[in-house]
Amino acid sequence: MLKWLTFLLLLPLPVLASSGGYPFANCGGCHSGGAGTTVPTITFEQEVYVGLPTTVSVTVANAVQSHAGFSLRLTGGEFPTAPGAGVRRFNATDVSHSTPATLPRTWTMTWTPTAAGNANYSIWGNAVNRNGSSSGDTVNPVLVTGSKTVSLRPEGFACNSMCQQLVCRQHLLRFCM
Prior knowledge:
1 helix, eight-stranded mixed β-sheet, single chain, four-stranded antiparallel β-sheet, mainly beta
């Protein structure tokens, strides 16, 4: 019995690192020692209305490192099961990269706000050198936080180059040419 216990204790422990991201986490808990400055940003590609899916983009930049990932928490709405290419959903409010991507990189995803008011976000960005360990990687030094105003849907018409939209009593109707 003692031999088996000794054998089990000598087995290597798994490393808690993941190129596929983690649920919302401070990447700096593991990654460190890299060069350059890592800057994550978030943009909302349109006005944000309750119940209407919107496009959210997260960009990570670093002039020195070769690849990057991100971790985002966005409250006041829900990410779908498959939020976007290269994006992994952990729950309704938390997403991350599914694989590290070449820098600079923008991940685009769909998010649907569920309530009017402020949708609060927090982003960690991590630029990495892909050496297989957490050394030599550059995390943004401060959690980036902010909010986006979510409005009730306006009544009336909204047009773009190909479609007209009619929003009436919380229902969206689209008429495309």
